[in-house]
Amino acid sequence: MVRGTASALSAVACVACLLHNVAGFVVGPTPTARGSFTRVNRASSAAAVSRAPGTLAPAAAARTQVGHASAVLRSSSAGREMTMAAGGKKTCIITGASSGIGLEGAKFLAASGDWHVILAVRSFAKAEAGAKDLGMDPSTYTVMNLDLASLNSVRNFVAEIKAAKVKPDALVCNAAVWHPKDKKPRRTADGFEEAIGVNHLGHFLLVNLLMDELKQSRVVFIGTETHNPGSIAGKIPPQAHLGDLDGLAKNEPMIDGVKYEPTKAYKDSKVCNVLMMREMNKRYSSGGMVVSALFPGCIAESPLFREKRGWFRAGFPVFQKFVTRQLVSVEEAGRRMADVVSSDKLSSSGTYWRWNGQDAEATARENVVSDEAMDEARCEKLWQISSDLVGI
Ligand SMILES: NC(=O)c1ccc[n+]([C@@H]2O[C@H](COP(=O)([O-])OP(=O)(O)OC[C@H]3O[C@@H](n4cnc5c(N)ncnc54)[C@H](OP(=O)(O)O)[C@@H]3O)[C@@H](O)[C@H]2O)c1
User: Fold this and answer.
1) Measured in angstroms, how far is the CA atom of residue 346 from the centroid of ligand 1?
2) Which atom of ligand 1 lies closest to the CA of 97?
3) Whether residue 119 has its Cβ less than 6 Å from ligand 1
4) What's the gap in Å between 150 CA and the centre of ligand 1?
5) For 144, phi and psi rounded to 5 degrees?
6) What residues contact 101, with CB distance under 8 A and at least 6 apart?
7) Which of left, alpha, beta for 243 (phi over 0: left; psi -120 to 50: alpha)?
8) 303 lines ligand 1 (CB under 6 A)
9) Looking at residue 88, what is its pLDDT?
10) pLDDT by 10s per residue, the chain, length 392
11) Within a 10 A sphere around the Cβ of 384, how many other Cβ atoms?
12) Helices 310-319 and 2-24, packing angle to 10 deg
């Protein structure tokens, strides 16, 4: 009964999300910006801050400015050594790029010819198979092991990147877990509730250990509209709520210390992504870092829904396609991610992007974040508690 109710509420939440999209889609399309995969609202691009020197330049210029050609990464994938033959291309690390939006985003960046992509994943075989399925040229990407559910794995990954003297031009914090049917929290290797551990703390440590390499780079977080209880989608229970972060400080399963609820844990972790984006923008954008987030849309066919019931996974995309007409494909979401990574029109640091439609004709525009995510004191407090928890 409880599970059924939760499923129904989740379904309503997603529908509300789509309806909210419809309500928010008021800006008409503008011509696709040069070098962009998607369209950009003129007002947003006009407000864009200047890009970091050497990192966000148009592709042709960037080729001469970025030199990673000598970097060699050794990957244990299938027991063979892979060379990151960047050849003057820019380098983008995407976490969780073994499926879904991350893999599709990698495909677009790699196919542009301007980027070499590091697929930072916990399963080599899955990433390799996924890249092959999408027809990615093996010379355009490198698969590396990163399990965000283990702080040791994060440290090892960073050590490998540093040893290879790779200075990433972009990092996409994309990986996430959502366990909607769990009654008890799963734990990471370090004992954190998994949604907060993987979606936030693993990324927090990753970014901090790579901070020297990222000073002039673009850092992108993947957000969700349901992080915001002020939005129609976000009003559907369980709502995101971090409170004063006391539960997190005590390493309880829920950030605000309430009883474990898996979908709330996921939403809360996505609020943390926005808080982290805003705090990083405050601390590092003046030095040249461009840090932003995007809500790619409701992507009902992505593997993120793998733990939902069969009837939901079968029916929801159909409902979106024919009833709300708001089905955003995984491919389109990947295109949007690639744009936030690479387009000079989406180089406004501190911005949370969204699009005003479901297909490639949609236009990027700035989105609001939740009241909790706007609170600067909470941004700072999350940073401090997270630093303590991951030991930096
Ligand atoms: N789908 C939507 O409607 C939607 C909407 C808004 C935002 N988003 C966000 O989009 C991002 C991508 O989600 P998606 O829809 O593309 O789902 P997805 O295909 O499930 O992608 C999530 C990825 O995270 C990886 N991952 C999970 N645990 C990990 C760990 N411990 N270490 C490293 N990687 C790990 C998964 O790897 P494995 O393959 O090994 O499991 C998977 O590749 C997420 O941040 C999600 O919150 C999705």
Assistant:
1) 23
2) 43
3) no
4) 16
5) -130, 150
6) 174, 222, 296, 299, 302, 330, 333, 334, 337
7) left
8) yes
9) 86
10) 334 434 444 444 444 443 333 222 222 222 344 457 777 763 443 333 222 222 222 222 222 222 233 344 544 443 333 344 467 899 999 999 999 999 999 999 999 999 999 999 999 999 999 999 999 999 999 999 999 999 999 999 999 999 999 999 999 999 999 999 999 999 999 999 999 999 999 999 999 999 999 999 999 999 998 899 998 878 989 999 999 999 999 999 999 999 999 999 999 999 999 999 999 999 999 999 999 999 998 887 777 777 788 888 888 788 766 766 567 899 999 999 999 999 999 999 999 999 988 889 999 999 999 999 999 999 999 999 999 999 99
11) 12
12) 20
**Contact by Cβ (8 Å): 48, 267:** no
Tell me the CA–centroid distance for residue 249 and ligand 1, in Å: 25
Identify the residue whose tokens are 């390493």. 251
Q: Closest Cα to residue 334, out of 367, 285, 301?
A: 301
- Selecting among 141, 266, 284, 352, the annotated active-site residue is 266
Cα separation, 314 vs 248, in Å, equals 36
Residues β-bridged to residue 219: 171, 291
CATH number for 203:
3.40.50.720
Helices within 150-304 (DSSP H only): 151-163, 194, 203-209, 211-214, 232-235, 246-249, 262-284
Look up the pTM and report it.
0.84
Is 195 touching ligand 1 by the criterion CB < 6 Å?
A: no
Contact by Cβ (8 Å): 363, 356: yes
Report CA(67)–ligand 1 centroid distance (Å).
Answer: 30
| pLDDT value of position 299 | 85
Residue 141 bears catalytic tag? no
Number of domains in the chain: 1
302 lines ligand 1 (CB under 6 A): yes
**Cβ 84 under 6 angstroms from ligand 1:** no
Q: Whose CA is nearest to atom 42 of ligand 1?
A: 96
CA distance 273 to 111: 28
Tokens of 388: 């303590």
For residues 352 and 371, give the distance between their C-alpha atoms in angstroms, rounded to a whole number: 14
